[in-house]
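Protocol check, entry for the methods section draft. Step 1: assemble the input record (protein sequence plus ligand SMILES). Step 2: submit for complex structure prediction. Step 3: store the structure tokens unaltered in the notebook. Ligand used here: PRP. Step 1 record:
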Amino acid sequence: MCGIVGIAGFMPVNQSIYDALTVLQHRGQDAAGIVTIDALNCFRLRKANGLVKDVFEARHMQRLQGNMGIGHVRYPTAGSSSASEAQPFYVNSPFGITLAHNGNLTNAHELRTKLFDKGRRHINTTSDSEILLNIFASELDRFPDYPLEADNIFAAVAATHQQIRGAYAVVGMIIGHGLVAFRDPNGIRPLVIGKRTLADGRNEYMVASESVALDTLGFEFLRDVAPGEAVYITEKGQLFTRQCAENPQNHPCLFEYVYFARPDSFIDKVSVYSARVRMGQKLGEKIAREWEDLDIDVVIPIPETSCDIALEIARILNLPYRQGFVKNRYVGRTFIMPGQQVRRKSVRRKLNANRAEFRDKNVLLVDDSIVRGTTSEQIVEMAREAGARNVYLASAAPEIRFPNVYGIDMPSATELIAHGREVDEIRTLIGADALIFQDLSDLEQAVREDNPDIAQFESSVFNGIYVTKDVDQRYLDYLESLRNDDAKAVRMQNEVENLEMYNEG
Ligand SMILES: O=P(O)(O)OC[C@H]1O[C@H](OP(=O)(O)OP(=O)(O)O)[C@H](O)[C@@H]1O
Ligand SMILES: NC(=O)CC[C@H](N)C(=O)O
Ligand SMILES: [Mg+2]
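Step 3, stored output:
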């Protein structure tokens, strides 16, 4: 899903960006990067594969000098997992630009050809984000003057919107100018802006994927960046904002609320935590309605994301809530790990059953979502091994039957356990005694309650409706051939680690 952050301030930003990335780590565990602009107006870059705490050592932090910078944590959804595709990306013309991106472009292939044929620009990686950067750079290049005016920068964003399709929340820096951030015209991926006022009255600004990053760094949340909107903060700290899309719509990704975002974040005016509690309430009511005859003894979450949901289900059903599984806090999120083998292995490394909570009991296990079924299959087995009599499973998200093309790595329908299957077939595969899914309308209502202005969510993984309207079966087949687990494994063997810009080693 990737996390992005940018700070335009008057004090060194290296530590603040590092701290923000640790708070956004749940959005991407594969690679991390920071770029700053130093006193000589040069970019300083450090990026590599790994978690934030492993990528940045003291020596890197010392070299990441400057009062403006951007950062990224990566969960790959395009290209490869190579360090050369870690972000931010750099291009030297015009002026020198770096950029970090959360999301996924659906027309990357055509844009790559167009950039080479018409723009004479070579893209050296298989990343869609490098393409996005070069499209933006080409558009900035159309203005002959230096420095560019805010109007020019917004015009370049508007022209970029017209060419690229898909989902994107972007933060970038232009040498001699400042920090730019923008969000796709459907607002699929989240982006917020905050402000911190210094003792001398000057304002520092920060943009980030989630509001929790602002909270942690003492920035006051100003608002969500609107779909299609761009934000420009000059080197001197002046803030400009402009709507740059012709027909912006608010279609936030529903899966952010289910799984990706941290519960203490607000996305598009919706508290992720409250939305999850309401998911629990609605699912609890459905269980009470449909499973009257099931004799449940205890409600057990599958840590970590489902905990808030399961607690509310237990309250609605008037049953005890117990931590039947203990999570190893040193193992990250399994769903965003690359490759099915590593995901499979990680479930048992991550979760262990508390036998006392299972022995001779009918247990209701609750997860936020069932995607490939990797977690639930093994968890049901573990519950039985721990002595459970009957194992029931409830998912706070409906059946996930369609691929995601907007920044969640679910490129292949056949890898989804619910694809082409009815609930009972899924139940058999998972090995549960009963299985229940949330209804899509209930899930949408649970989220919408905080912000009734969201008319339509980006819910494609549940209903197959792609809000950018450019996704057809041909594209889905192409994506599947490019990114299914086998194709990725082959690509991993041929990875090259060429970085295009000096990397603080
Ligand atoms: O059906 P699957 O393909 O297994 O995917 C779904 C599971 O993956 C996620 O957990 P994850 O371990 O990534 O993170 P969490 O600790 O935040 O729950 C999610 O919360 C589900 O438990
Ligand atoms: N999950 C994301 O947002 C990924 C961003 C970008 N498509 C990449 O693969 O690096
Ligand atoms: Mg989970």
